[in-house]
Design goal:
Elements lengths: L14 H8 L18 H14 L5 H18 L6 H18 L15 H31 L5 H17 L7 H22 L2 H4 L7 E6 L2 E4 L6 E5 L4 E7 L5 E8 L5 E3 L3 E7 L4 E16 L4 E11 L4 E11 L3 E2 L1
Parallel strand pairs: 3-11
Antiparallel strand pairs: 1-2, 1-10, 3-4, 4-5, 5-7, 6-8, 7-8, 8-9, 9-10
Length: about 325
């Protein structure tokens, strides 16, 4: 099942519902933050241009609009956002501020040489569409991990979470920024639940006290909790999946390598992800190296070393000095 996501297209008639309902979302105040993703770049460029233009247009309405523009810029540029969730929250807040200050029109504002408000609306639509693409990619990557699990209740339960994510991304009735945000938030949470389950000992068949997986993450030592390390190998596809989670459940890793046939070094067809549950972030593995030193399917033993580089598109997690030693490898 592949996530296709939404294609949101708003019109002026929906703006009242958008503006009226935004205030009920996310009761906690949103701290000011530099965007974690790069989706805000067009909006920031547009707002900077408008702020400069308003400096030379001192009418009452335009002074109020400049306040809205500068308030939104402050929201996006003052400090640091650390998650896709925070960026989504900031997108909702920015939409509320701007759509209240700039009612949507079918042409240029009366007596103004500013861009039409349909331009601003298009930028906001593209902003949310960018988040949709991110989360759709997360679901697709997680599906690879879940697909490598041994058949059974654990696989089925992880798949249920992913099915929930896909359903949220394809839900009907996404007609404004509120419902778009809600579907994206639901999909992201469900995907991370699937990741956590896939990384658990119950799913991956780890649990031997001697099983281990460790690495250095961005120069910080990282060790999987006892009993959390797991691995599965599918003989028909030659796909190896290695997983582990920290004892405090702050993060988990899943490494997928296609074409593993025995001892040796593999530098292509490496994927997977690194999940940071404290910030609800999922980093996609784009490159790496896996060296298998022990490979015995009959005794369910595998060991070796690895490195990888993963990214959200903005931030990077690099794993070095990775080691794994499993004596309970699941063989399908």
């Amino acid at each position: 099942m592949q996530p296709h996501g939404h294609a949101l297209k708003l019109n002026a008639a929906l703006m009242a519902a958008v503006i009226g309902g935004l205030s009920c979302l996310l009761a906690p105040a949103i701290s000011l933050a530099v965007p974690y993703t790069d989706h805000f770049a067009p909006l920031i460029t547009e707002l900077k241009a408008r702020s400069t233009t308003f400096s030379n247009r001192p009418t009452k309405i335009e002074r109020q609009q400049k306040v809205a523009v500068d308030r939104t810029l402050a929201l996006l540029l003052r400090t640091v956002s650390t998650s896709e969730f925070r960026d989504l929250q900031n997108a909702i807040t920015a939409s509320k501020i701007l759509l209240k200050a700039f009612p949507i029109t079918t042409g240029p504002s009366a007596g103004s040489a500013l861009p039409t408000e349909s331009t601003l609306l298009t930028i906001l639509e593209e902003l949310f569409t960018g988040f949709n693409g991110d989360i759709s990619n997360m679901v697709a990557s997680s599906q690879i991990i879940v697909g490598g699990l041994v058949a059974g209740s654990c696989h089925d339960n992880a798949q249920i979470f992913l099915n929930q994510a896909v359903a949220a991304l394809n839900a009907p009735g996404v007609t404004n920024f509120i419902t778009f945000y809600q579907s994206l938030s639901t999909a992201l949470k469900a995907t991370l639940k699937a990741e956590a389950l896939a990384a658990s000992n119950a799913c991956m068949g780890g649990g031997s006290g001697s099983d281990s997986l460790a690495m250095t993450v961005n120069r910080t030592p990282w060790t999987a909790a006892t009993g959390s390390t797991g691995g599965a190998y599918t003989q028909s596809t030659k796909v190896l999946v290695l997983t582990g989670a920290q004892d405090n459940n702050n993060s988990a890793v899943a490494i997928v390598v296609n074409g593993v046939t025995g001892p040796g070094t593999y530098t292509t067809h490496i994927s997977g992800n690194y999940a940071d549950f404290t910030t609800a972030l999922l980093y996609f593995v784009g490159s790496g190296q896996l060296t298998v030193s022990t490979f015995n399917l009959n005794s369910h033993k595998i060991s070796g070393t690895f490195t990888f580089r993963s990214t959200t598109g903005t931030n990077i997690v690099t794993a070095t000095q990775g080691t794994f030693n499993l004596k309970g490898l699941t063989v399908n």
